[in-house]
Amino acid sequence: MRAAVLHAVGRPLVLEDIEIDDPRPGEVGVRLTAAGVCHSDLHRASGDWGDPGTVVLGHEAAGIVESVGDGVQGPSVGQKVVLSWLYPCLECRACRANRQWLCRATRALQHLQPDGSTRLHRSDGTDVLAYLTVGAFGERAVVPAHSAIPVDDAAPDDVCCLVGCCVSTGVGAVLNTADVQPGSSVAIIGLGGVGLSVVMGARLAGADPIIAIDKSEAKLELAESLGATDVVLAGNERATRRSILNATDGGADYVFEAIGLPATIELALSSLAYGGAAVLVGLTPFDTRISFDGFRLVDRSQRVLGSLYGSCNAATDFPRFVDLYLAGELPIDRLIEGHITLDEVNDALHALQRGVGKRRIITY
After folding, report:
1. Which of 9, 58, 109, 180 could form a disulfide with 47 if both were Cys (CB 3.0 to 4.6 A apart)?
2. Residue 120 and residue 198 in one domain
3. Do 346 and 253 share a structural domain?
4. Nearest-CA neighbor of 162 among 344, 342, 307, 322?
């Protein structure tokens, strides 16, 4: 199969032919139909998160099951699936407590199958990793069966792939992690795919007001159309904070940070109401430190919540979000900038780095 391979951080991905094994027991083979180009791929490609070795990047994907290994009860051949980039072990303490996004027995974060191996190789037999065991910048994937989540065939492939990461991360942060209640004030800092998904989640939750903050007027306009009641064109930190405080009567009940920068995380913390919660959704580079006023945090009974993958259990949340799209309640298609071929993946990563446009979708 053709795939976009990262050989060295800071270098462009290389298009090459990669061999892929048949699924082993408990695994399924998936022909990919659509893959989003996500900021996490950029973090890996640039070296923000270390050097993973030779790896097929991409983790936000949908496709059709075309083969199954022994012992697989589902999904079945021919089903449309969204791939989860964090396959749970289903046995650890977190999984037993139905908090699969916290599974630490998974080997997905090492880009390995549960048995510690990879299904991708060069023609000479050299192993190639699949990023988060998905490797969505390739035409096919072999994944643990319980990370391939069946969804309604009526949903478009490009919409389905976004459910695999940015939509679940953003909408889930609102509905699951923070459990935002109707009438709560919400501010969102950063309007990439995840931040815009937070906007949509806040509207679903009945939040009011919903304040969207970004440096891009085009993204602010889109956020308004997705449910933001107020927008703030970000300038210097002091002016931006003042705008948030003015729009929320002195501070927001929830501030979602969807960028992953120390300055914007600290802005989120300083823009809270008494009793408010800063929900950190954006991932920083490794070893990034942030600072805040410890006395103020305690004195105002404020909270800091980390939100990985929107606190989602893929098996139930992925179909729920797809169904909400089909019901007209979650306009995921509005997040899409356009469709590209695999050959254009480096251009899409460069656009992401510059903050230009919305989600670009590779179609196979």
Report:
1. 9
2. no
3. no
4. 322
- Output the pLDDT for position 43: 86
DSSP 174: I
pLDDT digits (tens, 9 = 90+) for 96-137: 999 999 998 999 999 999 999 999 999 898 999 999 999 999
Tell me if 287 sits within 8 A of 275, measured CB to CB: no
In the structure encoding, which two tokens stand for residue 78, read together?
A: 């021919």
The CATH number linked to 232 is 3.40.50.720
Q: Is residue 322 part of a domain?
A: no
Sheet of 272-280: strand order equals: 230-233, 210-214, 186-189, 252-257, 272-280, 303-306
Q: Which residues contact 316 (CB under 8 A, 6 or more apart)?
A: none
What the block records as the tokens of 281 is 């959704």
Q: Which residues of 89-114 are buried (b: 16+ CB within 10 A; e: fewer)?
A: beebebbeeeebbbbeebbbeebbbb
Round the average pLDDT of the chain to a whole number and report it: 96
Whether the predicted pLDDT of 364 surpasses 90: yes
Assigned token pair, 116 = 């510690």
* pLDDT at 354 exceeding the cut of 90: no
329-339, pLDDT tens digit by residue? Answer: 999 999 999 99
